[in-house]
Amino acid sequence: NDYEKTKSLAEKLVREYSQGGMETVIVNPTRVFGPGLLSESNSVTMMIDRYSKGKWRIKPGDGSCVGNYVFIDDVINGHILAAVKGSAGHSYLLGGDNLTFNSFFDTLAAASGKRRWLVHFPVRLMIAAAAFLEWQVAVTNIPPMITVPWVKKYMNHWSVSSKKAVAELEYSITPFADGVEKTLLWLRSKQVN
User: Fold this and answer.
1) For residues 127 and 80, what is the distance between their CA atoms, to the nearest angstrom?
2) For residues 99 and 173, is the Cβ–Cβ distance under 8 A?
3) pLDDT tens-digit profile of 48-58?
4) How many whole angstroms separate alpha carbon 35 and alpha carbon 55?
5) Which residue would you say has higher pLDDT here, 142 or 51?
6) Tens of pLDDT, residues 70-126
7) pTM of the complete model
8) Which residues touch 105 (CB under 8 Å, ≥6 apart)?
9) Distances in whole angstroms, Cα of residue 64 to Cα of each of 31, 67, 97, 101, 109
10) Which DSSP category does 39 fall into?
11) Model confidence over 35-49: pLDDT tens digits?
C-alpha cells in the first residue's frame, strides 16, 4: 500500500545517508497492536475490538496465513533500544509471535472469554467486499471495516524472526496472549469513559 511504499523509499534514503557517513539505525516493526488510535494503521487492534464486541465475523482465507504480531509497548522499547544500542547502518526487525489467523482468533477467544462463530472468507470475496466498502464511503461517510490494500497485505505469509534485535539490543517480546489481554483491558476502559 502507499504507506509501505513510502516506508520503503524512506528506508532506501536512510541507507544512502548511512553510506555517506551519517550514523543511522533502521527499525522495522511487524503487525503492531495495542492501545492507540483505532484506525486502518492500527487494524489489528480494530480486529480485536470488533471481535470482542461481536462485530467481526470473518476469518481471512482458510485461516492458515501466518503473520507476526507485536505489542505496541515492545515497539516503543525497541525504538529506544535501537537508538541507544543499535549498530550504525544496521536494521532491526521488531516483531512478536508468528501466528496463523486460526491461532490469532483462538487466542483472542480465550482472552476475551467469547468464542465467536467465524466464517472462512475466500480472498477474492474479501477483495470484492473491501472494494464495495471503499466505494460506499462516498455515500455513507462510514469508514470501511477493511480495505483492498489491507486484504492484500494481510494475506501474505510473514513468518519472521526478531533474533537480531533480541541478541544485539536486548529487545524483549510480550507474548501475544498477554498483549491481547492488555489491549482488551484498555478497550474496556475506553468504553467506560
Assistant:
1) 37
2) no
3) 999 999 998 98
4) 19
5) 51
6) 999 999 999 999 999 999 999 999 999 999 999 999 999 999 999 999 988 887 887
7) 0.84
8) 51, 59, 63, 116, 118
9) 16, 10, 15, 6, 17
10) S
11) 988 776 788 999 999
Closest CA to 95 of 116, 122, 66, 117: 66
User: Which residue matches cell numbers 537480531?
Assistant: 164
Q: Which residue has the cell 487494524?
A: 43
Would you tell me how many other CB atoms lie within 10 Å of the CB of residue 132?
10
Q: Rounded CA gap, 131 and 52, in Å?
A: 25
Tell me how far apart the alpha carbons of residues 82 and 168 are, in angstroms, rounded to a whole number. 9
Residues 6+ away with beta carbon under 8 Å from 141: none
Q: Say what the alpha-carbon torsion angle 51, 56, 60, 64 is, to the nearest 10 degrees.
A: 30
Whether the Cβ atoms of residue 25 and residue 86 lie closer than 8 Å to each other: yes
Which class for 61: exposed (0-12), middle (13-18), buried (19 or more C-beta within 10 A)? Answer: middle
Question: Does residue 121 sit in helix, strand or coil?
Answer: strand
